[in-house]
Amino acid sequence: MDIDETSIQNELNHILESRCFRSRKTLRHFLSYIVQESIAGRQEHINQYAIAIKGLGKPANFNAQESPLVRVQAGRLRAQLEEYYTTEGRFNALRITLPPRSYQPAFTHHGNAPSCLPAIPEEIPQSQSQGPGIICIPRNFVADETIGWPFINRLTRDYVNALTHFNYCQVMFADEPLWHQTRQPAEAWLQYGADFALFFDLYEDEQGYNLKCSLVHSLNRQIVWAHAFILGNTYPNAAAFQHVFKRIAHDTVGVEKGIALDYWVRHLLDSGKPIPPHQQIIVTMRQYCWDISPDTFRAAVRSCEQRLTQFPDDIPALILFADYCRGEYILKYGEIGALNARTAQTAETLLKLAPGNAYSHLFYAMSCLFEEKYEACEAAIAQSQAINPLDSHLNNLTGLLYNALGQWEKGVALIQDSIAISPIYPDWYHIALCFYHYREGRYLTAMQEAKKIKLKRLWGPMLRAALYQHTGWQEKSQQEYQQLVNECPNLAQDSSKLTQGFPRKLNKLLHQVLTQLPGRHPDNPR
Fold first, then answer.
1. Which secondary-structure segment (H or E) carries 198?
2. What is the pLDDT of residues 390-410, one digit of tens each?
3. CB distance 381 to 365 below 8 Å
4. In terms of C-beta distances under 8 Å and separation of at least 24 residues, what long-range contacts does 415-418 make, across chains too?
5. Starting at the edge strand that comes first in sequence, how are the strands of the sheet with 133-140 ordered?
6. Whole-prediction pTM
């Protein structure tokens, strides 16, 4: 065995404590038995009879030739392990699998992750930050069940597979018998330990199939989100899938506005109980999204830094910290020092630990942009989009990168698509659109975009002040400029700090905007 026993035992513990296995008593015993026997070198004890007697607690007169029990449970265990490694365990460096037609477990390294997991005692908090768990449950309301059930099962599973590339939420597929999914959905929550159930209900009318989705909180059974989609007469093509899955993902598990994260964090805070360490960075991130301010940004960054000090390989924490570096570049909080170096270091770490994560490549692209490695930046952007084209937050950040590269049409298209997905989106998305129309000389359209920006810090008041000044509304321009001074006195007095860290391709446009601020001269925007 070329993998040490401690690493295998740690991975087994991770699996048994996961949402996928927490309430699966039979599969937990099955897996524990075959792994422990394999570690001990007793492979001869891993057969149908021994598994039934010692692993599953059957009586000594159990007849493996007559009963398919072990074979059936082995099939379920293979499927459940596959489910675990496409959701909660997708970034694990070590994997435990059960090969087809075998009861001997296999232990393999995965991807470019470290060869062994560190030995983590049970009393130490989980090493990967986690958000809420969501169990996706297909339900058929089409009269012809031979058509309806395969249709909705396939669609739900396709959605779960697509969501494996998202962060912070753990999305699972309910593979219980069909009658169970329809009549007793509460059992799915108990079995998977999920915080929410996302129901995929298939209906049919004279126009074809319709999908009704609803997100339900597991404790109070409250429907916190619902939406309906017209699917047509056949299974949706790839383009239709993009539209449907983007909307569901954006509204439920989206980084900035996803209602599952919102509701889950508010419930944690309202409970008055201590926040578990592996959930704290998700909570502070959400609080920052609710109130974008220096204080909440500082709290979010410090929480993330503390988490990474204890668990430097925490993938969600690394992704969040890289995103905070992006926030520091744009909003100039002065909370993260040595910004270029720390961005590059975090991106490199992400690429090593999570090469299959779209954000790893996105933040590497951002690092390349700051170093003016434009070809490498474009290549990393393409890789990020190939991995996950459904994440609206990622698409918006990609649009910003394209804008910084001077590819405005491509960047604006991505940002507009992120806005058009749903009426629920962050208002700061309009900043880039405002700059785009200003660049094109469409000042009234730029002003319309600027008025949609509710963000008080920096760019909202600055853009409105410049545009009001340009269009002759001096009094309103002065009011907006005063807000800018109140929020960012140092930046307002020294405009050179506004462009610090930005690529040279953006500086000319920023200079044009700054010259429109009250009291500025085109040759001296300071």
1. strand 196-205
2. 999 999 999 999 999 999 999
3. yes
4. 417/392, 418/392, 418/393
5. 170-173, 133-140, 196-205, 208-217, 223-232
6. 0.73
